[in-house]
Design goal:
The protein is α+β, with helices and mostly antiparallel strands and about 110 residues long. It has one domain: Alpha-Beta Plaits (2-Layer Sandwich), CATH 3.30.70.100. Helix content is about 35%, strand content about 35%. It has 3 helices and 4 strands; from the N terminus they run βαββααβ. The protein has a 4-stranded antiparallel β-sheet. The chain is globular and about 40 Å long. InterPro entries: ABM_dom, Dimeric_a/b-barrel.
């Protein structure tokens, strides 16, 4: 699994209303990812039970090129532009897969 490329993104949303709209935007984006991104191996959005205004994304790509392709997709560009109105802050941690159990990069 050493060639996988991933990231974790933690979003802090403005409030519950922003969270609802953000979740809708994420669902739309995920449809584009499913249809058009074979190099995106995992794209999972988590809520945090004790922090209702937080969402955590876990993303795993076959390699850095697959991530770069993801960033150029129209649905991703739309998400990146629209998300700003719903979030108060975000933290991104890039990951390099070293081993474990899960989807194997191509």
């Amino acid at each position: 699994m050493s060639s996988g490329f991933g990231l974790v993104v933690r979003f802090e949303l403005r409030d519950a209303e922003a969270g609802f709209a953000f979740d809708k935007l994420v669902a739309q984006t995920a449809e584009g990812i499913k249809k058009h991104e074979p190099g995106t191996l995992v794209y999972v959005v988590h809520s945090v039970p004790d922090e209702p205004n937080v969402r955590v994304f876990y993303e795993l790509y076959a390699d850095r090129a697959a991530f770069d392709a993801h960033e150029k997709q129209p649905h991703t560009l739309h998400f990146l532009a629209e998300r700003e109105q719903y979030i108060r802050g975000l933290e991104v941690t890039f990951l390099q897969a070293e081993g474990g159990k899960g989807p194997m990069p191509a």
